[in-house]
Write a structure and sequence with these properties.
The chain has seven helices and twelve strands. The longest helix is centred in the C-terminal third of the chain and has 21 residues. The protein has two domains: about 160 residues, no CATH class; about 35 residues, no CATH class. It starts with a helix and ends with a strand. The protein is globular, with a radius of gyration of 23 Å. By secondary structure, the chain is α/β, with parallel strands linked by helices. The strands form three sheets. Strands 1-2-3-7-9 form a five-stranded mixed beta sheet, with helices on both faces. Bound molecules: zinc ion. The site of zinc ion (ZN) has 8 residues, from loops.
Length: about 250
Amino acid sequence: MKDIINSLIDSLFIKNYLFWIILILGLISCFFYKEILGFIGEKRVKRILKKLPRKEYYVLNNVLLKNNNITHQIDHIIFSKYGIFVIETKQYNGYIKGNEYDKKWISNNKYYINNPIHQNYGHIKCLSEILRMSKDRFISIICISGSSSLNIKTNTQVIRSNELLNTILSYNKSYIYNPKELYEKIKNLNITDINSRNKHVINTRKRVKQIEKRNINKCPLCGGDLILRKGKYSKFYGCSNYPKCRYTKK
Ligand SMILES: [Zn+2]
């Protein structure tokens, strides 16, 4: 019996390289689950954008720009005479609920996620300042992949990746006369150096942590103060804007 087990261990674990490769890949995907899904989502959108007519639409993917000493990472920008499309891709699963102006959206009635419309607004503001163009020349698109069901009330395009092409093509009023020039300008400003890109990731994480620290006594939904209240059975923190906002925290 011992021999059989030993030989099994030998063949499975030590000699079988495939086993180790699968184990290591499995561990990597556990640790970088979110990053990998995000990467796949972005790759998928990149592939879809290649289907746009090349003479009319100029596409830039994964752009890093510096403006007012802050770096902005923008997933996709498409320059066309019909407008400048700024796309933020998100991988969501489960039930997502939110509105245009909410600070956070709610996932599965449990977790709060940053409203991506706000994030993309920051990207559009950055581009409008660099290109010295009015913000109304930009079209914000939040492109969602994953198996989520969405309940989002908004005027912004919050769409699934299979709707992306038709959404872009549905804009047909032309009002930008030099899309290629604008594309070249941003392409030249795009930071491609790997060290700067890594720095951006580290700085963004730091900034998010600082904001979270600052907002520890603020309601994540509306920004109101959190007040300690007495419930029937225990004390809890509730939003000062109750009953308009019903956020609570134990
Ligand atoms: Zn609130």
